[in-house]
Amino acid sequence: MTHWIVAPIILPAFVAAFVILAARYHIGIQRVFSVSSVLALIAIASGLAWQAADGTITLYQMGDWAAPFGIVLVADQLSTLMVLLTAVMALFVLLYVIGSGWDDRGRHFHALFQFQLMGIMGAFLTGDLFNLFVFFEVLLIASYGLMIHAGGNARLRAGVQYVLFNLIGSTLFLFALGSIYAETGTLNMADLANRVALIGAEETVGIRVAAVLLLLVFAIKAAIVPLHFWLPSSYAEAPAPVAALFAIMTKVGAYAIIRVYTMIFPPDLDITSGLHDLWLLPAALVTLAIGMIGVLAAQKLDRLVAFSIIGSMGMVMVSISLFTPAGIAAALYYIVHSTLAGAALFLIVDLVRTGRANLNLTPQPPAAGHALTAALFFIAAIAMAGLPPLSGFLGKLLILAAAFDTDLVVWIWVIVLGSSLISIVGFARAGSVLFWKAHSLEATDEADAMPRPAALSYVAVGGLIALLAAHTIFAGQVHGYTTAIAAQLFDPDPYIATVLDAPGKLSTPKGDH
Amino acid sequence: MELLVASAIGILTAGGLYLVLRLRTFPVILGISLLTYAVNVFLFASGRLTTGAPPILRDGAEVYTDPLPQALVLTAIVISFGMTAVVVMISLGAFLGSDDDHVDDQPETDEDVSEGTS
Question: What number of C-beta contacts closer than 8 Å exist between A and B?
Answer without folding.
Answer: 94
